[in-house]
Predict the structure.
Amino acid sequence: MKTKRSMVLVSNDAKSQDKGSAKVFDQFSKELAAFNLSEEISLSMVSDIDREDIAPFVIVYPEAVIYGPVKPEDVHHLVEEHLYKGRVATELIAPTKQLTGPIAWIADRKGTLPAEQRIVLERAGIIDPDSIEEYVIHDGYIALGKVLTEMSPQEVISEIKESNLRGRGGAGFPTGTKWGFVASAKGDKKYVICNADESEPGTFKDRLILEGDPHSIIESMVIAAYAVGANEGYIYVRGEYSLAQTRLINAINQAKELGFLGENIFGTDFCFDLHIHAGAGAYICGEETALIESIEGKRGEPRSRPPYPTTNGLWDKPTLVNNVETLANVAPIIRNGAQWFKSYGSASSSGTKVYTILGNVNVTGLIEVPMGITLREVISIYGKGMKNGAKLKLAQTGGSSGSIIPADLQDVPMDYDSFANAGVAMGSGALLLCSEETCVVDLAKVLMNFFRFESCGKCNPCRIGNQRAFQILTKISEGLGNPKDLTDLEDISKWLYEMSNCGLGQTAGSPLKDIISHFKDEVEAHINNKDCPAGVCAMSGKMPALK
Amino acid sequence: MTIETKKDRDFIKTADEAVDMYDAKKEELIPILMKVNQDLGYIPKPVMEHISSRLSVPQSHLYSVASFYHMFFTKQTGRHVIKFCESAPCHVAGGREVFDALKEELGILPGETSEDGKWTLVTTSCLGVCAVGPVMMVDEDIYGNLTPEQIPDILAKYE
C-alpha cells in the first residue's frame, strides 16, 4: 500500500446531503486528479460529528482543519492552497461551534478548549501500526535522531523536567526527576522498563497506544535509555494483550533492521537492546517492584522500599520504570519542545490525559484531552449525557485503586493539584460514571472482591484486610449489618493505608473510606433499616458461603 | 518408581520444547510456563517436575510461581475455558445479571469444571475491553455488550 500523506473527509450526514455534499465530494475527486494528488491523498466520507451548522463541511487531516460550509466552487481553491501548496485556507475555516443548552457555559471557561487534543494518540488509527515507514513519515524517530546527534543526556533530562511531565500510571511522580535519579545512580549497568501491565479495571488507554502506535513507545524508550545511561530494556506487557505483543515484536524487529535499535543507533556509539516480557495475569505486577520480580521469573510480590528501583531495580541495578502513556509523551516533547507541551493543560499539570469513559453514559470509549477538563464536560461532550436521561450519582475515577466521588465534585478540574486538593485520586484515567441505580455498598463490594482476589498475600494487612472488608460488605448487603460494621470498615481502610507494604494495599481501602465519607446515609440505611435505597442488594437475611 | 505412560512422554516432550525455546534460562520461567500452559491447557505435575530438574529450580518455587499467576492452570481444565470479567465497569453495565445467567446455564460455579469436561468457568479481572462491557472470553474469543439472553446462543457455538 502506498502511504497517503493527507486525508480529506467530506461530511455525509442528512443535512450535508441536502446541501449538496455529494457535489463537493465529486469536485474533490476531480480536483485531486487534476493536481495529480489522488495517489497521495485519501478522500472519504464522514457522518454525524454534530456540526449541522456548517454543513457540508470538510476535514483535512493530519492538520485536523475543518472547513465549512464548503461549496463545490470552493474546492479548487482548497485543493490548491491546502493540499498542493500546503497552506491552510484560513478564509474558509469553519467558525467554532456555539455551544447551547446546559453546557454553553463551557465556551466562557478560561484556558483550554474542551476539544480533544491528541499527543500520545496522534497517530493511532491514522497509520498502519505494522509499518515503520508510515511511522517515520509521520515524524517518527525524528526526536531520537535529535537526541542522539544534538543533545547531551543532561540536556534531555532538563527538557523533560522543564516540560513538567508527570507519570501517567497513576501516582503522578515528575518524570524528569525520576530520570535524574536513575541517571545519577551509580552502576555500569542500568535498565529501562516500560510498564505495560495495564490492569486497572476500566483502563485500556495503554492498549490503544501499544496496538495503534507501537513505535512511539520504542522511540521514547531509546530516548529515556540514552538520558539515564541504560543499554538494555524491557517492555512488560499484560499477558492478555496478545495483539499488542505481536505488534511490539514486529515493531522491534523493524526498528532493529533500520538501525533505530541495537548497535550504534543513528551511527553513534549508543547501543540499546529491547526485550518483550509478557505477564501471566496478575494485577499486582503493575506495581513496579512486583513487575521487576516478575521479569526475574518470580512471583510478582512487591519488594520493600526503600531502596527504590531507581538505585536497586532489575537484577539489583538502577532501573527506570515508566508507564506507556508517560513514555508516549517523551518523543513529542523532544520534537516540539517543553514550552509547546506546557501550552496544553492546566497550570499544575501540563499536557493531555487519556481517559476511558465507562458506565451509564450514552457513549463509552476513549478520549485524549488537555489536563484540567471537568467530569461534567466529559459526560456532556463525549459521553453525550447519561443514559436514559438519568442523573449522575457518583463517578469512580482511576480504576479500583482510585476514588469514588459524588456528583457534586463533577466540576473539579481533572488535574493533579485540583484533584489532590479535593482528596481525589487521579489514577489511571478510568472514568466510571454511575447513575442513581448504582448502590454504593454493592459497588464497594465488587471493588473489595477485586482486591481480595488480586492481593498477592505477602503482607497481612492487605491479605486479611481486604477479605474481611468483603465479608462485612457482603453481610451488610444481605441485611445482616450492625452499627459496629461502619467503624470496622473505617478501621480497615485506615489500617490498609497505614500498614500495607505496597501501593495496592495502601489504596485498597479507599472505596471504604469514600462511601462512608460521601454516602454514609445510604450505608446506614442498609445497616439500620435493612433497606437498599437503590434496590440492588439482595437483603436476603442469609449470609452466603464465601470462597 | 512410576511407570511412564505415553501421556507422560508427551508431557515431557512439551516441557523440553518450552525449556529449549528459552535456552533453559531460569529467569525465563514465566514464558516457559506460559508456553506449556498454551500447549497443554494447564501445567501438569510431571511437567513441573521435569522443568524443575532442567532449570535446577526447586519444585516449590515452580509451584509457587505457577499458582500465583491467573493465566496459569495447575489442574486440568475443561475443553473450553470461560473467563468472565467481574470488575466494576462490567458490573455496573449489567454484568451481574449476565453472570447469573451464565452460572445457571453451565450449572457450575466459578473455579469449577463441568462433569462432562466441556467447560471451566473462572472469573477474571479487567480484560481491557471495558467500553463494551459486560465482557467475557471463551477460549480466545471475546464477547462484549452481553445480555443474559445471549448466553445460550454463545455457548451453543462450542463443541
